[in-house]
Specification:
Layout (H helix, E strand, L loop, with lengths): L3 E2 L6 H10 L8 H10 L8 E2 L5 E5 L8 E8 L2 E9 L1 H4 L5 H9 L3 E3 L2 E3 L4 H7 L7 E11 L5 E18 L12 H15 L8 E6 L5 E6 L3 H23 L4 E4 L5 H13 L10 H6 L6 H13 L4 E4 L25 H14 L6 H6 L3 H28 L6 E10 L2 E6 L5 E4 L9 E10 L4 E6 L2
Helix pairs in contact: 1-13, 6-7, 8-10
Pfam family, one: RNase_II_C_S1
Organism: Novosphingobium aquae
Protein name: RNB domain-containing ribonuclease
């Protein structure tokens, strides 16, 4: 769950209801668990020994499903990023019980304090995870990052790597990270700005209690280490996407830009938070001015992420170059095969292309099928995500029925006016007459029902 955490398990009953409603998969069938236990005993034989290289991982401190590790070395004026990705394909064979179950699940589904993993723990949190307790099979992508932030895929190999440290976003020190980590991040970020990318790093919503014992939603911005780490993944994905496009194969991640209606709604949100967004300034430029450590500006960044067009997958199609508006580039996903079904297939294609070999049939045959499977899984994840936020909002406001709140209308629709509360990161609907987007209104809370995950307001001014 990337938009809300619940470290004190304040929402346990409601979360269980969400799991049931959206049929979030739980335990694996015995034959799948047995297949995972057997696969975990495999001994790599076709991997090069790269255990002497200084790889580290960087993730949330409590993570155990570690998809990526990295090592960095200078290469003249460039940096050479060695990005190791868990070799899930070594453990999972096309058509075996693990593969079939992964096709059924599509993704790892996250909830506060829990997750429904794509693969059993014997793989996802042990044998296939790049933990620092021994050699692990990986697919290693060598990516050259130039002074201008440009990226190029130099090579791909199967290798045994050994992570030297499991570093955590929350407390990592600069001296624990490889030389070049900050430099690569700066270069990739500068290249994003030069091409007009709209990628934002919104904060997480976290459930907590205030001094009076009320539930509240507070915002936790990404750490600098977290933001920099994301640029390593971005650099790898961009380099691989370019190589696959040139080879006329692959599966790409695409996303349209924010619509005019979304921009209008976001301007209403900015007004609700008293943010000065000049009328002649583009959304991407405005976002760059915002401080994710400021609660109002952080809440706007979250609204902007929700307001953009949804991302999806498309296979290579001759004459149609795939485009991701937030990245302002051709883009693909390869860096999370323990958590996304599609990545394992794109990795196999990239490995083949980089080494002058035909793309394996299991990957090529999967590319036309994966968009529908991934869309279904992501729709479930988004529904779960929205339900959890609805639950948290209802819990937070429960007991405050009758109170008045200042709000701004951000959008109009058949279900009423969408409003953004001015003092809380809460979005709702209200029946309102004679209002336009951007109008300031006063609403009264008439119902906050955590069981139904519902909040109801009425307009009073």
């Amino acid at each position: 769950m990337k938009t809300l955490r619940d470290p004190d398990c304040l929402l346990a009953d409601g979360l269980n209801a969400i799991r049931e409603q959206f049929q979030v998969p739980q335990d694996f069938a015995p034959e799948v668990e047995a297949a995972a236990q057997k696969a975990a005993q495999r001994v790599p034989s076709g991997h090069r020994d790269r255990a002497d290289m200084h790889y580290v991982t960087l993730d949330p401190g409590n993570s155990t499903d570690l998809d990526q590790a990295f090592a960095i070395e200078p290469a003249g004026r460039d940096w050479l990023l060695h990005y190791a990705i868990a070799d899930v394909g070594f453990f999972v064979d096309p058509g075996d019980p693990l593969d079939l179950e992964a096709w059924r699940r599509g993704t790892t589904c996250y909830l506060p304090g829990a997750k429904a993993s794509l693969y059993p723990k014997a793989l996802s949190e042990k044998a296939a995870s790049l933990l620092p307790d021994g050699d692990r099979p990986a697919t290693v992508f060598a990516v050259r990052v130039g002074p201008d932030g440009s990226t190029r895929l130099e090579g791909v190999e199967k290798a045994l790597i050994r992570s030297r440290a499991k570093l955590a976003y929350e407390n990592v020190r600069d001296d624990e990270l490889p030389a070049g980590f900050a430099a690569i991040a700066g270069r990739v970020k500068a290249a994003e700005e030069a091409r007009g990318a709209m990628r934002v790093d919104p904060p997480e919503q976290e459930v907590a209690r205030d001094a009076l014992g009320h539930y509240i939603l507070q915002l936790r911005p990404q750490t600098l280490a977290e933001q920099r780490n994301a640029t390593l993944s971005l650099a790898t994905n961009l380099a691989v996407a370019d190589a696959l496009w040139q080879a006329q194969t692959g599966l790409f991640r695409v996303m349209p830009g924010a619509s005019d209606r979304a921009i209008t709604r976001l301007r209403g949100t900015a007004k609700a938070f008293a943010l000065d967004w000049p009328a002649d300034m583009a959304l991407a430029e405005f976002e760059k001015r915002l401080n994710p450590f400021d609660p109002r500006e952080a809440a706007f960044l979250m609204a902007a992420r929700r307001g953009g067009g949804g991302a999806s997958y498309v296979p290579f199609m001759a004459g149609e170059k795939p485009w991701h508006a937030a990245m302002a580039a051709t883009y693909c996903h390869i860096t999370a095969p323990l958590r996304r079904l599609a990545d394992r297939h794109v990795i196999a294609a990239a490995m083949a292309v980089a080494n002058g070999q035909p793309v394996p049939d299991f990957a090529a045959d999967a590319f036309p099928l994966l968009p529908k499977v991934m869309a279904k899984a992501e729709a479930r994840d988004n529904q779960v995500d929205r339900a959890v936020v609805d639950l948290a909002e209802a819990v937070m406001l429960s007991g405050r029925e009758g109170e008045r709140f200042a709000a701004v209308v951000t959008d109009l629709g058949e279900a009423g006016a969408r409003i953004q509360l001015c003092e809380h990161p809460v979005v709702s609907r209200v029946t309102a007459n004679g209002v336009v987007p951007g109008a300031e209104v006063t609403v009264r809370l008439t119902r906050a029902d955590p069981v139904r995950r519902e909040i109801v307001f009425e307009q009073i001014a």
